[in-house]
Design brief:
Rossmann fold; 12 strands; binds NADP nicotinamide-adenine-dinucleotide phosphate; alpha/beta; 6-stranded parallel β-sheet
């Protein structure tokens, strides 16, 4: 007799979510739907079914997982996607559906770095000295706190190409994925006479900018991760796959 597949809702938006989707795609034991907020122009093409757009808060997510018979939820959203992660905790609690958070480990300072921890974007914006030329790598939705710094010039790097003006007084925007080696980021920072780096502590492969800043003796203002409601957590896709395997044969 065939065992019914475990229906998985994968809250996506990260490289780890893509890796887990790929691991789940070849298996008959799982029926996976990956969910995207719709924040990026082109959600990654995954090997599993995808849906795009918000659920409508905690109640909407609770309705969705109940209506679609989801057996387990993996929250593989970005460590700064605090609302979605909080909603996942509340909705899974309300519906008694198991939840696992897949969250990459935070970065630590490279050797020799001038690494300044700040609590949020507002604190980072306030810490930039007058006349700074800041490489701002915080994502296009997190530029608000920097919009009043008329005395600072920004080099903004975003994943998607920006088609509308950004809410900053003086800036140049570049787009695309971060480079694989620090050399390219050193070149970029030198070309724009960057004096400071501002980044979220996202973790993952975009570490090259921090290595580049350390090598150029450029101070890095690193925005700490927001506090999330507690949930069982792993930091790599293979551990998430192992966690999911416990449901095979029991749904
Ligand atoms: P957020 O503030 O935590 O979420 C805002 C709302 O967007 C949520 O309440 C939810 O709407 C919807 N949403 C977020 N992620 C979703 C998902 N995977 N599937 C369906 N709906 C989702 O999120 P955010 O910081 O704007 O990030 C949006 C997406 O971009 C996330 O998927 C995240 O992984 C990715 N991302 C974020 C960052 C970052 O720095 N924040 C960086 C890289 C990638 P409803 O309440 O209507 O359900």
């Amino acid at each position: 007799m065939n065992t019914p597949p475990v229906r998985v809702l994968l809250l996506a938006g990260t490289r780890e979510a893509r890796e887990l989707a790929l691991a789940l795609s070849g298996s008959e034991e799982f029926l996976t739907t990956a969910s995207f907020a719709g924040a990026t122009e082109m959600p990654a093409h995954l090997q599993v079914k995808t849906r795009v757009g918000g659920f409508g808060g905690v109640e909407g997510l609770a309705r969705y997982v109940t209506a679609t018979g989801v057996h387990a939820v993996i929250d593989a959203t970005h460590p700064f996607a605090v609302q979605m992660s909080a909603n996942a905790v509340a909705a899974c609690k309300a519906t008694d559906i198991p939840l696992l958070r897949l969250e990459r480990i935070p970065w630590v300072a490279p050797d020799g770095a001038e690494w300044i921890n700040v609590a949020c974007g507002t604190e980072a914006a306030a810490a930039l000295p007058r006349g700074a030329r800041a490489f701002l790598a915080v994502g296009s939705n997190s530029l608000g706190p920097f919009s009043q710094r008329h005395d600072v010039w920004f080099l903004v790097r975003t994943w998607d190409r920006q088609t509308k003006p950004l809410p900053l007084p003086h800036y140049v925007a570049v787009s695309g994925p971060p480079p694989k080696t620090a050399d390219k980021d050193m070149e970029l920072m030198r070309a724009h006479d960057v004096t400071h780096l501002v980044t979220k502590n996202s973790g993952g492969p975009a570490y090259t900018k921090l290595e580049a800043a350390a090598q150029l003796n450029i101070p890095a203002l690193v925005i700490a991760r927001p506090k999330l409601p507690p949930a069982e957590t792993v930091d790599d896709p293979s551990a998430a796959l192992k966690w999911l395997q416990r449901f095979v044969g029991s749904v």
